């Protein structure tokens, strides 16, 4: 554990020197029964005398939201309230109306075509629906300009999420906003908001008291504010700068893909519950981890990974075979010195990461509050920490370590 502590300390800002450092970081590792490691380094704000970053630091985790949202939808599948392969267009008006953006004419006006294919929950969870993020998609940013659309995905509004498809559902893999629409499906099916449902079926069950989509509505506001992390922004020169939060102050929708605020400690409880098989049936857990993409879609995924090696999966060796499950991305081979084949992972816009290795029953979460995404220094630290975990904490563990394996 001293090794993990020292690795983090070396990468955290000291005083005013933030060059090539992280302002603050927290890292936790769990197995089915215990917390194997918890540690932090750095601070929550830019002034060098602000509070320390800890596992209880409250922060925005962006796309780490996708895992609990996927679990919630699979709970509905298990109850028979929705199926993975039913056409959702009759349930969600936007999905019945959304068109496919085929390009632009000579006047830079969008060429749109009606979609005649079903859009299913499977498409939404596997990022094969044709929906994607409008930032940094050049076609969607051009479309927004052409139609006078001012609200983007990060406004967490129906208008902001209502963008055209870029291809027919099921024909390509492209990371996007499908899980946000899956969250809207959950609200339509249950009659609850996404937060209300998660509080009853995940947060409350696991004692995740520091998790939610609307921080102002959580209890103990003053106490939590004193341990809330500020955003830091990496300059081109490598130093960290202060800046305003990119998030909306108020928003009508709760983003199932990127709306969660939490702590490393709370998120570690979620990962441990997955290892325990506590939130889904055995079949549901198998489904959460099962590779979903056929050969053609897997090839498309691999091409996307190759085009942005420091983006989607900086922890994967270049060319590592990957697939996508309903809960996240899978490495299909062992990563030398690190996680085993079949491990699932994802990351978020603010450079936080998680992974679950079901074969030996271990999981970890790495939390920072840093923009822009794909920060090299955050990815480098995360890689060193994972290596140390497999060298020191879980070396020699037998395969078959959790209820998900």
TrEMBL record:
Protein's UniProt keywords contain Hydrolase: yes
Domain of life: Eukaryota
Keywords carried by this UniProt record: Hydrolase
GO molecular function: hydrolase activity
Limits of the Beta-lactamase-related domain: 20-382
UniProt keyword annotation of Hydrolase present: yes
Family membership: Belongs to the class-A beta-lactamase family.
Name assigned to this protein: Beta-lactamase-related domain-containing protein
